[in-house]
Amino acid sequence: MLSVLLRLAEIFHINLNGPLTLEEAKELQYCLRENARYCWESLMIDNQSRLASVTHDHEWQLALQGKLEVLRLTGRVPKI
After folding, report:
1. pLDDT for the residue numbered 1
2. Average pLDDT of the residues in 50-57
């Protein structure tokens, strides 16, 4: 699991006990932005993988699976 997602969960639980500090609110915005970027990149790779499957481009599909694996492990899409 990505550390930013763990921190997002921590901030959520902190917020259950009361309002967030300004620093926690900034950190929450950062975590939400990173989560949105991660979701967007994951969906883009998934859509490209579907296209590769439909067009029977197995090399492209394998490359995309590799990218998705790296994204899941590091939170960043490799520049290949």
Report:
1. 64
2. 97
